[in-house]
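Work Package 3 (structural annotation) set out to generate three-dimensional models for the target panel prioritized at the project kickoff. During this period the team completed the workflow that converts sequence records into discrete structure tokens, so that structures can be stored uniformly alongside our sequence database. As a representative example, we reproduce one entry of 405 residues exactly as it appears in the project archive.
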Amino acid sequence: MWNPWFLAENQWRPEEEMRDLQLDGLKTLVKHCRENTSYYKKLPEIKSLEDLEKIPILTKGLIHDNFNRLRANNIPGHIIHTSGTVSMCTIFKDNRLKTDWGEDRFHSWFGVPRKKICYLWGIIDITEKPLLYSNRLYLPVDSLNTREDAIKYLQMIDNFKPDRIQSYVFGIRFLAHFALKEGIRPKVGVIYTSAEVLTPEARKEIEEAFQCEVYNFYGSRELGSMAQDCGEHGDLHINAERYIIEEVDGKLLFTDLLNYAMPLIRYENQDLGALSSSKCRCGRGLPLMKPPEGRVWGFLLTKAGKWVKSGTHDLIGTHELFNWVSAYQFVQEEKGKVTILLQPWSEDEEVPCMDSITKAIQHLWPIEELETRVEIVESLRVSPTGKQMFIITDFKPWEDDTARA
């Protein structure tokens, strides 16, 4: 199920055939789990895809508590760290999945070359400073805070003339705002966004600014490339040869049929969303899902009037002092001030003294930029719509130009 030639042909097969393929993959995965993991020794017999409901949901907390029991004893892999929307997670990923052929198939839908690519991404994956290397332009969103930054990035993109831009929604919309305002229109082949919700308003503004198609990509560090829209730009096509996606009470559950090193069955990644029963006019048999609703990261406004994106905050997720933290959240109620909520894995966690935590936070967050305080809580806050967000703030960068002047 995992080579580019098969995937290119299989996407056009009827959805019923796709379900048969998923069932075969699920049966094989469950057999492997029983034989090679201690966590899944007692999985029920699988006769249909509906039998998935007999298997308990796998949460990030359960992965944390049962990491070694979830690992297969016969498959080599590598560690993957993710902070997700609000919670941290570490998994073990099959080495055979280092090339994501499903993502390559999604990219083939763009219809443009892939020679020159611009990455508007976080420093954890690319670089701390703008870098042009061969046919790749790396622009860290963490350095994108002001009007001057936006103009500099737009000019670099204009000179580079990329076939494709891969970007966080916030980063490319930030640039789109100033591209329209300053009359800078870089030549771009196609843009595909990820990691945040692509709203209709954001898509419209980005398309107008860069005069190209914008694709909505859905993936995650611990899973891979789950879904994307096609040229019809409606619901997202699921990478169904690899993933079975369920919707339970508005939450999405993922079964990765190919990660044999640490099988993730009915994994709850804390994203909110819904499956779709629609049929896409493109004719592909890949099942559809609505764009996820719970991945808007938000922004923090410093005293100096700069917007800080959540990519900066991944430092907390990797700092050894915070190993006891299962989830964290930033709450900003006014400019230059933020409350950091830290949620322990359990009541039994050994929590460092508050002085140590505060000093570490101040090291990560220069006091002249953000005045911070820390709270240890049993649960995180939810937004007015009931969603649990990584950052809760009332500010929107495209509504207040004075904040970025």
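Residues 15-36 form the longest helix (22 residues).
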